[in-house]
Specification:
alpha+beta; Beta-Lactamase; Helix Hairpins; Heat Shock Protein 90; 3 domains; 7-stranded mixed β-sheet; 5-stranded antiparallel β-sheet; 9 helices; rod-shaped; binds adenosine-5'-diphosphate; kinase; phosphorelay sensor kinase activity
């Protein structure tokens, strides 16, 4: 059974009980009130009856009888002593006769009110016994009756009105209730529909449209939409991560295939050359064979180095992907940068190496890891040398608003502006570097990861043919030197 029907059933049931209690109370009250009033009127009139004598008989006098008749009451007396019955004129006229009390004693059964039906009409009859005051002997029964047809009819009508009214109210209320329940449950239907749509398909962009008030249903829809938005966000992130992972694997295999092909080619060449005895070779002399072998081994060595660099870089990034972090301690920057500057002299280079004033770094500490910071600086410096065939590469430092900027500038080949957003992506190599300068396209991705781990940022200024400047900004912790 749907909530809608259940709600309506409950609502109708409660209304039914309420109407039943209310109608019974109204009916009971009107019933009691009208009869009680009539009874009081009868008792009052009966007590006011005066008696006179007619020979031996004791009878109500004329004026009393008239008064009662005017009040639409019927009077009958029954003289117990002589067994005579007297009836008022209106009784005689209508041919009415009240049953005389059978027991000639005054008791509870006879004294008081009785309901009787005479000539098809309902009557209420009040019986009152009169006794001889001295002997206390029963003398006369006085019976005063009233026709209760009008009262009964009024009560019947009231009963019908109450029953019909209650039934109509119930029908109208339950129909309206069902309509209202359906209306208020409609948005829930929308929630179900949206949930089903998501369950069947993969479209997480579905939202439930609702412009009603912010009541319970409004809140439910709001929560549901919020949940969908978060799920969609998670799903998108997951999809992006999965796509990045796939790209990484495909790029990595592609990058590894090139050195492997070169190595295999050279190994095949060496094998073929050395399978034949040196003396049996007509086309090559000893020196040529030696020269070719030397070049092949050199190629193999270069490619092996390239592969091991690539594998190391990939390993670093794979570690970064698993969320692995390194410990951060306050690191004094001056000795660190000085060491990097000194070691940079020994790098393979064709450009000049300039180091600016590093004394501003005295006492400057950053929260970081010495090894990783050095690795990051070397990535930028090696790149600068790699992409600067002639000219100069320089390193200097700036302090600005609680940050330290490590600036590596070169006057090399530079890049197009629109390439800058991609250079930190894995395996990305700018067009002019591809196939000309050796590299894996992973260096800057690793540098970016190290900078992120240090809560720093990187700024790039570059122009094609004019050179590039990379500034790495790191937050400074001012701590006294540990000495
Ligand atoms: P690679 O191994 O190719 O150097 P990186 O991730 O270190 O990989 O750099 C990505 C690309 O950014 C390089 O291929 C190159 O095109 C460009 N790049 C990086 N540094 C410089 C620089 N100093 N001058 C010009 N281009 C640069």
């Amino acid at each position: 059974m749907s909530i809608r029907l259940r709600l309506t059933a409950w609502y109708t049931g409660i209304l039914f009980v309420t109407l039943l209690i209310f109608s019974s109370a109204v009916y009971g009250f009107v019933h009691l009130y009208t009869y009680e009033e009539l009874k009081q009127r009868i008792v009052q009139q009966a007590n006011k009856v005066d008696f006179g004598t007619d020979g031996f008989d004791v009878l109500p006098n004329r004026s009393s009888a008239n008064r009662l008749e005017d009040a639409d009451l019927y009077i009958q007396t029954y003289n117990v002593l002589n067994n005579r019955i007297w009836r008022s004129d209106n009784m005689k006229f209508s041919g009415l006769q009240f049953e005389t009390p059978s027991v000639q004693k005054v008791n509870k059964i006879n004294n008081g009110f009785k309901r009787v039906t005479l000539n098809g009409n309902p009557f209420i009859v009040y019986q009152l016994a009169f006794t001889e005051s001295n002997t206390n002997q029963l003398v006369l029964w006085l019976q005063v009756g009233a026709n209760t047809r009008t009262i009964e009819q009024t009560l019947d009508r009231l009963q019908s009105i109450l029953i019909m009214g209650s039934a109509a109210t119930l029908v109208i209320a339950s129909t309206l209730g069902l309509f209202l329940a359906r209306k208020s449950m409609k948005p829930i239907g929308k929630v179900t529909e949206a949930a089903e749509q998501i369950q069947k398909g993969t479209d997480l962009s579905v939202r439930i449209e609702y412009d009603g008030p912010q009541d319970e249903i409004g809140q439910l829809i709001g929560t549901f939409n919020g949940m969908l938005e978060r799920t969609e966000g998670f799903y998108k992130e997951l999809e992006d991560a999965y796509a990045a992972q796939r790209r990484f694997v495909s790029d990595a295999s592609h990058e590894l295939r090139t050195p492997l092909t070169t190595i295999r080619g050279n190994v095949d060449l060496l094998q073929k050359m050395w399978e034949v005895a040196p003396g049996e070779r007509a086309d090559m002399d000893e020196a040529t064979i030696k020269q070719i072998s030397f070049e092949a081994v050199g190629d193999i060595s270069d490619e092996a180095k390239r592969m091991s660099r690539l594998v190391n870089d990939m390993l670093s990034l794979a570690r970064a992907d698993t969320g692995q972090t390194f410990e951060l301690d306050p690191v004094p920057l001056q000795p660190l940068v000085e060491e990097v500057a000194r070691r940079a002299h020994f790098l393979e280079k064709t450009a000049e190496w300039h180091v600016g004033e590093l004394s501003v770094l005295n006492g400057v500490y950053v929260e970081g890891n010495k090894d990783y910071l050095q690795q990051m600086l070397f990535i930028f410096i090696e790149n600068a040398f790699k992409y600067t065939p002639e000219g100069e590469v320089s390193l200097d430092v700036v302090l600005y608003k609680g940050q330290v900027g490590l600036r590596i500038s070169d006057t090399g080949i530079g890049m197009d502006k629109d390439e800058v957003p991609f250079i930190f992506e894995r395996f990305y190599r700018a067009d002019q570097s591809r196939g000309i300068t050796s590299g894996t396209g992973l260096g800057l991705s690793i540098a970016k990861w190290i900078i992120d781990e240090h809560k720093g940022s990187v700024e790039v200024v570059t122009r094609r043919g004019e050179g590039s400047t990379f500034i790495v900004w790191l937050p400074v912790v001012f701590a006294p030197p540990l000495e």
